[in-house]
Structures are given as structure tokens and as C-alpha cells.
């Protein structure tokens, strides 16, 4: 059956992940055909840097698709069907502070976890609320597929502000990326694996990995492998050193807690002191990503602009970020009911956790959006961890929406990477100073 063509708007299109996302759209052009692609970013210079490369790629592979670049939010969402959102409020300049300021206090310096994730969450909430309002002015029925981090905090905030909007889906590509890595280890097709998972975003565990073709749960085999071998991502050869270290820590976490397979991000909550001590306060992941992905992509785009052709240049191809986003949209658009790890309001998915938590779990994506699979009660250890982390998330959102300093200190003290209220205060005061353009607390 011929598939209806879609209009897609990318928000935060100046991200250097965009060319690879375009690569995924090209790759999937028959499965998720486009009528129009809108690339929107508030920073025109970020779009301009990549515009010619993107235009040339689209002209070559999808010449019938209308392409529209804009920095005007009133033009970005007109009659759109899918919004792929990947904005970073404050860009890499602010990511740099998120990662480096906590290290001054011996705390984890990470963009989505700990004090850095808190500061980033506080920056993301308001622009994300503004974005949803703007989208609904122009496209009442558009699906909003959100990647913007910290997705855990953004998801709670959007659910609080827009509780009845059924077309907002928050997603993370880390479970997808881990499944891809598991599949490589087990020598099976990643699309033949159907996961079961519970937790919060960047704070969860795989409990089952069913092989659809045989019905076998592959978790025992994988646990056996990870007991004896270092865990490496599927694309270890292309990964920066900090990511390889992150994957290795899954082996360490499993030594202590072998029950389930942990998401890599749990390393920051189980080993905060070791990780902070090992970090270089002068060179964090932001520097690594800038020197790696950002430089590589911007160099290719500059060459395309200078020669006005793609000659000698690669088609940047999304392996995870882009592929997952397009597969998610495809499953919704054509009611494919494919199973992903998604975020959803808990209600009764995990009956012994708060109903209003935005849990991460397996679910089918249908034309009505996510249909999360009920998980059941979680055991005491996990319940304790999750309630604590959710209390941190909820207080962060409240601190932001109410400009409430006391709630911010409470949130940071609850965060397992901080714990000490004196440290919470010191790091909060520093973060507040550099973020004054984005958020204030009283
Ligand atoms: N959920 C996930 O698993 C996942 C995976 C990868 C990336 N991400 C997130 O995707 C986003 C992009 O990451 P990046 O490292 O490529 O970022 P980046 O800093 O390279 O690019 C982000 C872009 O967003 C733009 N922007 C900022 N505020 C905006 C607004 N209000 N409206 C429109 N555009 C705006 C910036 O100008 C910039 O060009 C981040 O939030 C990142 O954390 C999430
Ligand atoms: O440090 P970065 O900017 O390279 O990546 C941070 C993100 O990491 C996870 O996602 C992906 C990433 O998008 C992709 O490019 C690739 O490197 O694989 C990662 C997953 O292994 C994470 O899920 C995101 O939330 C982070 O933003
Ligand atoms: Mn993520």
C-alpha cells in the first residue's frame, strides 16, 4: 500500500546531529516518505553552517521534497505532521558549565545526571513549554517527538503543564543503542529483539530481551557474556574514550547487582565519587564531542558549501539517533505497533510507584501513540532508588516553575550524586550565577 507523505519539522536543526538525521530520512524515504521538511533553529548561524550540505543531500536523494530553513517559529509549525525536537538551550557553551562546575566540588559533571542535569533541565523546561504552545497554535494534531534533554525532567514538566495533550512523546535513544549493542554481541538482528524494561529516563533496567522469532529470552546468555567479557558498544571503533569507559561500567554494576541489565547512565548514581575523581575538569565530554562529532560534521558541511557539491563527501548516516526517531514516527504514522522503550505517565504501569511519575518502559507505538506495557510491582531495592530519583525530578520541575530556591536545594540533596546539602548549596549557587540568563530562583 502506498504510504501517505508527511510534513516534518526539526526543532534545533542547527544541532550537528541533523545531517545524520537527514541521512536516516533519506535511508527510510520509502518507509516514511516526506512531502516537506522544515528545519528550524533560533540561531540562524547554526543552520547556515549546515544548510548547503543538507540542501545538496536532499536534492540528490529526495528531489521532490520541499525544503524550508527558518529561524522564525511562526513559520516552522504550519500544518506540520511530526515535530522532531532536539533543542539544547544554551548550546555547548552551557553544556560546558553543566559538566565543569560540579567537578569543582568533587561532584559528577554530566549533562543529564547530577547538578549538570539539574541546570540543563532548568534551562530546557520553559523553551519546551513555549514550543508546545506554538506548535498547537499552528498544528493541533502534530505529533511532538521529543529528544531534548534531560528528557526525564522535560517529560515530567510537559506532562504537568499539558496533561491532556496525548500527542507528546518523550524518547531516549540509549535503550535502542544498547539493544543494538546486545544484538551485535549475541549475533542476532536487533529488530528481532523485543525488550522489557522499567525505570525512569537514564535510570532504568532491562529485564527481558525476547527474540521474537524464537520466543527465547536472551538475557541469561547476555548476562553470561557480560560476566566474562567487557561490554562494548556496537560501534566501539568509532566511539570516544569516555563512552567506552561508560560501557565498561555496566560490567562493574552487574557485579554488585546482577539481577537486571542496567542502563549505562546508572553508573553516575552508583559510582559518583569514582567517576568525579577520574574526570578531567579541564576536558569533559562537551570538549570531546566538540572536537569529534561537531568538528567532523562542520568540516564536511563547510566543504559542501565551498565546492557547492557533494563530491568526495560522505552521506552522514544516522545509526541510532536518526534511525530511532524516524522508526518511531513511522510506527505511529502507519500504525505498525512496533515495540520501543518509551516514556509514559505511570498511572498503573508500575503500581507501587507514584502515578504521576514519567516512567520508562516497553510499549507499542500505534496510530494513537504509545501503548505502554504494564510492568507490575518493582522490588524493594529498585522501588527505593526510583522513588528517590522521581522525587528529585518532581522537585526540580517545581523549583523551575515556581522559581523556588528551597525546592532546588531539596532536589539536589535527594540526587544520589550529591546527597550533602552543603555541596548542594555551593554547586547550586555557582550554577545559578552562570545560568542567570535562563533561570532564577528566589
Ligand atoms: N533523548 C536522547 O536520548 C537524546 C539523544 C541525543 C541528543 N539528545 C538531545 O538532543 C539535543 C541536541 O543535542 P546536541 O548535542 O546535538 O545539541 P547542539 O547544541 O549541537 O544543538 C542544539 C541546537 O538547538 C538550538 N536551540 C536552542 N534553543 C532552541 C529553541 N528554543 N528552539 C529551537 N532551537 C533551539 C541551538 O541553537 C542549537 O543549534 C540536546 O537536548 C541533547 O541533549 C537527546
Ligand atoms: O555525549 P554525546 O553528545 O555524544 O551524546 C549524549 C547523548 O548520548 C546518548 O545518546 C546517543 C547519541 O545521541 C548518539 O549520537 C550516539 O553517540 O549514541 C548515544 C547512545 O549510546 C543519550 O541517550 C542522550 O540522551 C545523550 O544526549
Ligand atoms: Mn537519552
From TrEMBL:
InterPro entries: Glyco_hydro_4, Glyco_hydro_4_C, Lactate_DH/Glyco_Ohase_4_C, NAD(P)-bd_dom_sf. The record marks 111 as: Increases basicity of active site Tyr. Binds 1 NAD(+) per subunit. Mn(2+) binds at residues 172, 202. SUPFAM superfamilies: LDH C-terminal domain-like (SSF56327), NAD(P)-binding Rossmann-fold domains (SSF51735). Keywords: Cobalt, Glycosidase, Hydrolase, Iron, Manganese, Metal-binding, NAD, Nickel. Its cofactor is NAD(+). Residues 197-417 form the Glycosyl hydrolase family 4 C-terminal domain. Pfam families: Glyco_hydro_4, Glyco_hydro_4C. GO terms for molecular function: hydrolase activity, hydrolyzing O-glycosyl compounds; metal ion binding; oxidoreductase activity, acting on the CH-OH group of donors, NAD or NADP as acceptor. Homotetramer. Belongs to the glycosyl hydrolase 4 family. This is Maltose-6'-phosphate glucosidase.
